[in-house]
Amino acid sequence: MSNQLLKGKRGIIFGALNESSLAWDAAKEVKKEGGSFVLSNTALAIRFGKVNQLSEECNSKVIAADVTSIDDLSNLLNQAMEILGGKLDFILHSVGMSRNVVKKREYYDLDYNDFIEALDISALSLHKLLQSAMKLDALNEYASVVTLSYIGAQRVFFTYSDMSQAKAMLESIVRSFGYHYGSQKKVRINSVSQSPTRTTAGKGIRGFDSFYHFADKMSPLGNASSNDCAKFIITLFSDYTRMVTMQTIYHDGGFSSTGISKEVLSNYRPGCTCFVHDQGEE
Ligand SMILES: NC(=O)c1ccc[n+]([C@@H]2O[C@H](COP(=O)([O-])OP(=O)(O)OC[C@H]3O[C@@H](n4cnc5c(N)ncnc54)[C@H](O)[C@@H]3O)[C@@H](O)[C@H]2O)c1
Question: What lines the ligand 1 site, CB under 6 Å?
Answer without folding.
Answer: 15, 17, 21-23, 41-42, 45, 66-68, 94-97, 121, 148-150, 194, 196-197, 199-202
